[in-house]
Amino acid sequence: MASAATLLRLRGFPFLQARVLRAALPRRYSVGISSLEPPKPPDPAGSWHEFNGRTEVVGVGGLEGLSPPSPPKQKDNSWEDHPDYRRWKDKEEEIFQDIEPVKFLVKDILHSDRYMDGERLSTEDEKEVIEKLLAYHPHSVDKIGSGLDSVMVDRHPQFRNSRCLFVVRTDGSWIDFSYQKCLRAYIRDKYPFYAERFIKEHFKRT
User: Fold this and answer.
1) pTM value?
2) What is the dihedral of CA 183, 187, 188, 194, to 10 degrees?
C-alpha cells in the first residue's frame, strides 16, 4: 500500500516515477538494465591506421592486403655476352672504320664550299672516289660508258637543291651516280655475311 501511495504522489513527476519503478524491480534484472557492455579489446591481429590519406587495417605483418615492395629487377644483359652478338658488334665496328673516311670525304665534297657547281675534283679526291666508290657501283660499266674522263660535282638534274657526283665521259656526256649505292655494293662485296644487317641498321632506304 505504501508503494501504491508513493506512485500516486509521483504521477506528476515522470522522471522520479521511473526511478521508483527501477528500484522496485528484483535485483537480478537491475544488473542487466543498468550495466553497459564493456568495450571490446583491440584485435591483436590488426588495428586501424591512416595510410596515404586513407584508413587501412594494419595486421601483425603490416598493412592487410598489401605486400612489401619488390626489389627492382636486374636488367638481363646476358645476350650481350653471347659470342654471336659480340662477333657482330666487332664486325660492325670494323665496317664503320673501313667506310667512314671515304664517306666523310664525299660529304665534305658535296656539302662544303671546297668545290663550285660543275667543278672537277682534284686528282687526289678523284682517285679516292673512283677506287673506293665508282668501281663498286652496281652499274659502273653503264655509268662510265664510252670511257671515264673525270669526276665532278654539280646540282642534281631533278632535285636542284641537292648536289651529287657525276661521271664525265670521254665523249663529253656526263651522268650522276649515287655514292650510297656504291657504299652498299662495297660492303656486300667485302663483308657478305654481315652486309645486309649493317645496311638495314645504318643506311636509309633508297
Assistant:
1) 0.59
2) -140
